[in-house]
UniProtKB/TrEMBL annotation:
Domain of life: Bacteria
The Spermatogenesis-associated protein 20-like TRX domain, residue ranges: 3-163
Protein name: Thioredoxin domain-containing protein
InterPro entries associated with the record: 6-hairpin_glycosidase_sf, 6hp_glycosidase-like_sf, Ssp411, Ssp411-like_TRX, Thioredoxin-like_sf
Pfam families per the UniProt record, alphabetical: Thioredox_DsbH
Length: 675
């Protein structure tokens, strides 16, 4: 067996480096080998913090007899979906089209031309619940390949033709307007879980991008129902087990609709998006809960995900060792009453058990409970000092447990989301350290991920750039982060870097009719060019780029970028009224478009009162430029010809090519921006 994963950058691939399976990385050489041996390719896609990926690896890929059969009859290829979202997207679309569902681990059988013909996700070691065993699947596919090759080729060809016919044009329905956004809000109201917050049933995912839309819609229209759904959902999540009540930060999703038991992996992207959501909720309402959660989530990211090079790691695993030395899900986070007594003593343990919902029966497995804030039916306990002391002692005790593994690769897109969240949270709450952490992550992206040619690479690890090209979401989210950082710091270089990236979006990711593609026109050609406008766990590349293009156009007056943003938003007009839960960021960007967005120029000091007031304005998608002196306009076009009024710091607000009278009064500026 040849170990081809030993030099991989991906922690997920390295987890499989010692398997008896003769793994290849995704490469032309792997498919050439399949052609030479006249065997199919087994494509296995997952990621480092995926619980069921670990399970299938342990059950099947570590089994020598399974590995021997696999090596003899297939060319096995292992892909980290976070490194190659393009490969993942293309074959996940095929899996979902064929089976009606998808997920990870993803298992796909391909011809040597990379055409898929059989699909699945997790396969157990023995057949159960109507699922064949992995060995049975391997034997069945190998037999079909040998005995029914024409049928296999016909199936593969049909799937590829079907995928090719799914390409989206740009906006046929035109720009999303007031009717489409009102219909989206109505649909969300129907899907809303009034009892538990959030949308839909179990499993329940944090709807961060939908909440951004709701906050912006309320800011623009005054719709109280939109704000109520946002605030109540955020409160329910923050009180639930999906939120780490000791260390801050959010788990990936809740397995139940009440937010009690999470799937324990913690992803950078969820925490970046939710940190920003809670900061924006505080901006809208002044909620103490929103302030606390925004800061705790920011501190979690810095404390547990920040790398030595200043970037942010992808994820913490769901699994870790329990007291018996078993590698199980949630072991780091859950508690039993006995464990509380061991750390806190009888009295404080009883108090903590009631406060955090820890019972003898447990809310999770084997009598353990996930900490959450239990509704009391009356006012919260007022003993804040006791609660803080209990939290601190439990957190210190938890730090002695074996920690979940960390996926240390730095993903450009997700770091862009973190930069935006930390920059804004730091600015709102007078935490310059958070702004500094955002700046350091941005420096890493410029230095390592952009290199000398301003083309992004997708990942890095230990300060070394990976081999995979950035996809559209990388360009959109990193530009978004740079634009937020420019507004907070007053450093125009970040606006310039955003412009470099967005020019590449216009040149290499935009089709003839204005539609966007997830990969560049000079990227590796797969069986189809992936193109997904829907927001799922993160903003789609399509909507992320639209938002950044719109903001950059507001900063610079560029018609090309404004037109590209408007062209991209047509898909929101089509999908928003029908499926608003899956295009939340697109709807948020559409709110900014309807509002202008407003352009705010502050001629005066960074971190001055007018600058802070501008940043706290709630007008959807407003952009802020700040700088002192006559040369400030060279970095920020909005500051050109913006003199100080009577020598005092002065703010200018423009919208739809019309500018208000300049003001030196923070209260007047706040009123202009919905503050």
């Amino acid at each position: 067996m040849v170990n081809r994963l030993a030099d991989a950058m991906s922690p997920y691939l390295l987890q499989h480096a010692d398997n008896p399976v003769d793994w290849w990385q995704w490469s032309p050489e792997a498919f050439e080998e399949a052609r030479r041996r006249n065997v199919p390719v087994l494509l296995s896609v997952g990621y480092a913090s995926c619980h069921w990926c670990h399970v299938m690896a342990h059950e099947s890929f570590e089994d020598p007899s399974v590995a021997d059969y696999l090596n003899a009859h297939f060319v096995p290829v292992k892909v980290d979906r976070e490194e190659r979202p393009d490969v993942d997207a293309v074959y996940m679309e095929a899996v979902q089209a064929a089976t009606g569902q998808g997920g990870w681990p993803m298992t796909v059988f391909l011809t040597a031309e990379a055409e898929p013909f059989y699909f699945g996700t997790y396969f157990p070691p023995e057949s159960r619940h109507g699922m064949p065993s992995f060995q049975q699947v391997l034997e069945g596919v190998a037999a079909a390949w040998t005995d029914r090759r024409e049928e296999v080729a016909e199936v593969a060809g049909r799937i590829v033709r079907d995928l090719a016919g799914r390409s989206l044009a740009a906006a046929e329905g035109g720009l999303p307007g007031e009717p489409e956004l009102a219909q989206a809000l109505l649909r969300l109201t129907r899907d809303y879980d009034e009892r538990h917050g959030g949308f839909g049933g179990a499993p329940k995912f944090p709807p961060s991008m939908v909440i951004e839309f709701l906050l912006r819609h309320h800011a623009r229209t005054g719709a109280e129902g939109a704000l109520q759904m946002a605030a109540d959902s955020c409160a329910a999540m923050a009180r639930g087990g999906i939120y780490d009540q000791l260390g801050g930060g959010f788990a990936r999703y809740s397995v139940d609709r009440e937010w009690v038991v999470p799937h324990f992996e913690k992803m950078l992207y969820d925490n970046a998006l939710l940190c920003r959501v809670y900061a924006h909720l505080w901006r809208a309402t002044g909620s103490d809960l929103a302030r606390r959660v925004a800061l705790e989530t920011a501190d979690f990211m810095v404390r547990e995900l920040r790398t030595a090079e200043g970037g942010f790691a992808s994820a913490l695993d769901a699994d870790s060792e329990d007291a018996q030395g078993r590698h199980v899900e949630g072991a780091f986070y859950v508690w039993t009453p006995a464990q509380l007594r061991e750390v806190l003593g009888e009295d404080d343990a009883a108090f903590a058990a009631e406060y955090f919902g820890v019972t003898e029966e447990g809310t999770f497995e084997e009598g353990s409970s996930v900490l959450r804030l239990v509704p009391t039916g009356e006012a919260e306990p007022a003993d804040d000092e006791r609660i803080a002391g209990v939290r601190a002692r439990l957190l210190a005790a938890r730090e002695l447990r074996p920690r979940p593994e960390r996926d240390d690769k730095v993903v450009a897109a997700w770091n862009g989301l973190a930069i935006a969240a930390l920059a804004e949270t730091g600015a709102y709450f007078d935490r310059p350290d958070l702004v500094e952490r955002a700046t350091e992550a941005a420096d890493l992206l410029v230095r390592v991920h952009m290199g000398d040619v301003a083309r992004l690479c997708r990942t890095s690890k230990d300060g070394r750039a990976g081999d995979n090209s950035g996809v559209l979401e990388d360009y959109g989210d990193v530009a978004e982060g740079f634009l937020a950082l420019a507004s907070v710091t007053g450093e125009g270089a970040w606006l310039e870097f955003a412009g470099f990236l967005l020019d590449i979006v216009l040149q290499h990711f935009t089709g003839e009719k204005g539609q966007l593609f997830d990969t560049a026109d000079d990227a590796e050609q797969l069986i189809r060019r992936p193109q997904d406008p829907t927001d799922n766990a993160t903003p789609a590349g399509w909507t992320a780029a639209a938002g950044a293009l719109l903001s950059y156009a507001a900063h610079t007056g560029s018609e090309a970028h404004r037109a590209a943003a408007e062209g991209a938003l047509g898909v929101v007009g089509a999908l928003g009224p029908k499926a608003p839960r899956f295009i939340g960021w697109g709807l948020a960007v559409a709110e900014a478009l309807l509002d202008g967005p407003r352009e705010v120029a502050v001629a005066g000091p960074v971190a001055g009162e007018l600058h802070r007031t501008a940043l706290l304005g709630r007008a959807p998608g407003a952009v802020v430029a700040v700088g002192e002196g006559s040369d400030a306009g060279s970095e920020f076009p909005l500051l050109v010809d913006r003199p100080l009024a009577g020598g005092a710091p002065t703010a200018y607000v423009c919208r739809h090519f019309v500018c208000d009278a300049p003001t030196t009064d923070a209260g007047e500026l706040a009123a202009k921006l919905g503050g």
